[in-house]
Amino acid sequence: MRKLLNTLYVTTPEAYLALEGETVAVKKDDDILLRVPLHNLEGIITFGYMGASPALMGECAKRGIALSFCTAYGRFIADVKGETQGNVVLRRTQYRMADDEAQSLAIARNILVGKLHNSRWVLERATRDHAGRLNVERVKRAGRFVADAIPKIQTAETHGTLMGIEGEAASQYFSVFDELVLRDKEEFYFHERSRRPPIDNVNALLSFIYTILSHDVSAALSTAGLDPFVGFLHKDRPGRRSLALDIMEDLRAPLADRFVLTLINTRQVHAEDFEKRENGAVYLRDNARKTILAAWQTRKREQIVHPFLKEKIEWGLVPHAQALLLARFLRGDLDAYPPFLWK
């Protein structure tokens, strides 16, 4: 299993990244804020507009260090890719299956079975762990709706039907998400999922963490020799990493959503950590991003037993495990793609 290395998050908008020997130097004006050895890193994400030197981009590409650029508010802009890993046979198989409606649908079904299973268990665990602090019957009712959608997913015969069932289940899941917020409800309320832009503090947190998770999943897929832009559930769209979004589906609820709830319910984030723009968009402030990213790195190092591999691994390695399992399926070593089924 791959070793979990560090991801460097650069949140200072005016910072510029440069290569100095075997290190990445984070600079602001003429000052060096930080130096980090490249051999300790598996990824770099920078939030800002100053960019990075061509020498650093080339060295990251050479070493397979995922380098991603986001706006100061966390929206993905671009990333740097080196030589494609793996072999062309694997990627051609991926492309053929993505173009084959029946094969693509079979993989998409498994992905969404994992998503709904995990969404249901997030709700179930909330009613078990916090029964006295939320509307148990309301949350359980939504959980039953999500659970009942799973056999419908397994028998869906078209992509459109599949997405319709998933959409209804996701709507039920998010309809009770506000119940899972246990503190400071006047500041951390949730009415519905809003993406572009996020219009409240909870949505701002979700969007930010989904961006970070997308980077991690995309890097894992590239390492496994797969094309992050060609998916089975999410269809091709210029600039969209569709396969990364596919693999993310299983991880949103147990990893990203629960992490956001932990940040709120343990008061690691506060109302003053957010700013509201004139257009109604809500974004995280710089200091808050640093706190959240430090907590995210800690969460990624927590260990779980992978439900399919039956091995103890860190949360941060789950995207790599799922990418390798998908590659094994495409090579014919597995009968089906095994989704990540958390409980």
CATH-defined architecture of the largest domain = Up-down Bundle
* Overall residue-averaged pLDDT value: 86
**Main β-sheet: number of strands, strand sense, barrel status?**
4 strands, mixed
The topology string of helices and strands comes to: EEEEEHEEHHHHHHEEHEEH
- CATH domain fold name of the largest domain: Four Helix Bundle (Hemerythrin (Met), subunit A)
* CATH classification, class level of the largest domain: Mainly Alpha
Helix content estimate: 40-55%
What count of domains describes the coordinates? 2
The CATH homologous superfamily of the largest domain is termed CRISPR-associated endonuclease Cas1, C-terminal domain
- Report the count of strand segments: 11
Helix count? 9
Through-space gap between termini: 22 Å
Q: How does the overall form come out from the CA principal axes?
A: globular
Classify the beta-strand content into a percent band.
15-25%
Q: Main sheet: which strands, in order across?
A: 1-5-6-7
Describe this structure in words.
Helix 3 packs antiparallel against helix 4 and helix 6 packs across helix 9 (318-330). The chain has two domains: 6-80, Ribosomal Protein L15, Chain: K, domain 2; 88-330, CRISPR-associated endonuclease Cas1, C-terminal domain (Four Helix Bundle (Hemerythrin (Met), subunit A)). The mean pLDDT is 86. It has helices spanning 54-63, 88-99, 101-129, 136-155, 159-175, 201-223, 242-265, 286-300, 318-330, and strands spanning 6-10, 16-20, 23-28, 31-37, 41-47, 66-70, 76-80, 274-276, 282-284, 303-305, 312-314. The protein has 343 residues and is an alpha+beta fold. The two termini are 22 Å apart. The chain has a four-stranded mixed sheet with strand order 1-5-6-7. The longest helix is centred in the middle third of the chain and has 29 residues, at 101-129.
